[in-house]
Design brief:
Blueprint lengths: L1 H19 L9 E8 L10 E5 L2 H8 L19 E9 L5 E6 L4 E5 L6 E2 L3 H11 L6
């Protein structure tokens, strides 16, 4: 009976903590991202690297990789080749890299990710839009 009550209390805490705001993750404040297309399998992408410094664009790009840098693991891991990589640079600390597959379906931390994670359908179109933008550097 003691174990049943403990399970019920623990279950209730798991439901209530997110509602109270106690489980909010601290998201790294990325200030720059370097997007590298290694093997352009999409006709709308070209081989190359683009540096993104606009805060809103970096934030939107990072949103496609929830939990990046948290050391999560996944039981899903496939044999795919990285079509591209994105290296995120926080305002302080070490950079974090992710790789994505040629079909824009999965991502993993790079170079030694511990599992694969699904990518949102919108990632491909946003990446194409981002890579086609002209650089406004002086």
């Amino acid at each position: 009976m003691k174990y049943v009550l403990s399970g019920i209390v623990l279950g209730a805490m798991c439901v209530l903590l997110p509602l109270s705001g106690c489980s909010k993750r601290t998201v790294p404040n990325f200030v720059r991202a370097e997007v590298t297309i290694r093997f352009p399998t999409d006709a709308n992408l070209e081989l190359g690297t683009k540096v993104v410094t606009d805060a809103e664009k970096v934030k939107r790009l990072a949103a496609f990789f929830p939990g990046v840098g948290e050391g999560r693991s996944s039981s899903m891991a496939g044999g795919w080749t990285a079509d591209g990589t994105i290296e995120f640079f926080p305002s302080n600390g070490k950079s974090i890299s992710v790789a994505f597959d040629s079909c824009f379906e999965y991502w993993s931390e790079y170079p030694q990710g511990d599992g694969d994670w699904p990518l949102a359908d919108e990632f491909r179109s946003y990446l194409v839009e981002l890579m086609k933008e002209r650089d406004n550097r002086p």
